[in-house]
Amino acid sequence: MLAIRLPPDLEARLAELADKTGRTKSFYARAAIEEYIEDLEDYYLAEEVMKRFRPQDAIPLDELIAGLDLEE
After folding, report:
1. In angstroms, what CA-CA distances link 33 with 3, 16, 41?
2. Residue of 14, 43, 41 whose CA lies nearest to 30
């Protein structure tokens, strides 16, 4: 279980959204946390990959695009 304190203005916005949609405040809090955590996980994964990146492995953009064989 998790209990959080929100600033009054944010609490009011959340309550109004819940009232208008018939969903619970917990529903929206859970959805927001899930999305935020997914974004953070992606960020930290990318950060770890970049730590292992070697500049000599970079491919210039024009070479990358040419290698994709895209039709214009």
Report:
1. 13, 19, 12
2. 14
